[in-house]
Amino acid sequence: MRRTCLSLVLCLLALDAAAQTAPVREHFAPPGWEGSYHGLHYTPVVRVGDRVIVSGIPASEGETDEAKIRWAFEQLRAHLEKAGATMEDVVELQSFHVSRDHDDFRRRVEPVLKVHREFFKDHYPAWTAVGTTALFSKDAPMEIRAEAIVGSGARAKASIPMPATK
């Protein structure tokens, strides 16, 4: 009996210690994005410890594709800031582009590259660009999601030599 009680106490102490050391998972929604959480049942931004995950942001506001893409990157910045991160902390991007074929895909990525250069001056994040036939937001030419590590931008370094010119 005493051994069983001691085992139970030790198990409870171990569970309590594990709960105290597990990172907190926080859910955020920048102003205007609350409906994503309450209506569509997804979190625009999740922070677990120093890791920040931003759900897909459709490029849906603006007159031109470039303006829509710039708006999406501005929204990305706002989403990150809500969770305590910056654009400099972004370690990975994923973008999804509506396109018919490879040539159309390459054409549609050009304005993204232009805007990307405005928001990421150096220490670029990893990036995967995917072509698709449709996005959730009907008129969006692309959607972008990201992951960041809070504070990592302050200590970024790159040891990548320039390619040799011919």
TrEMBL record:
Domain of life: Bacteria
Record GO terms (molecular function): hydrolase activity
Keywords of this entry: Hydrolase, Signal
Family annotation (Gene3D superfamilies): RutC-like
Official protein name in the record: Rid family hydrolase
Signal peptide: 1-21
Source lineage: Bacteria, Pseudomonadati, Pseudomonadota, Gammaproteobacteria, Lysobacterales
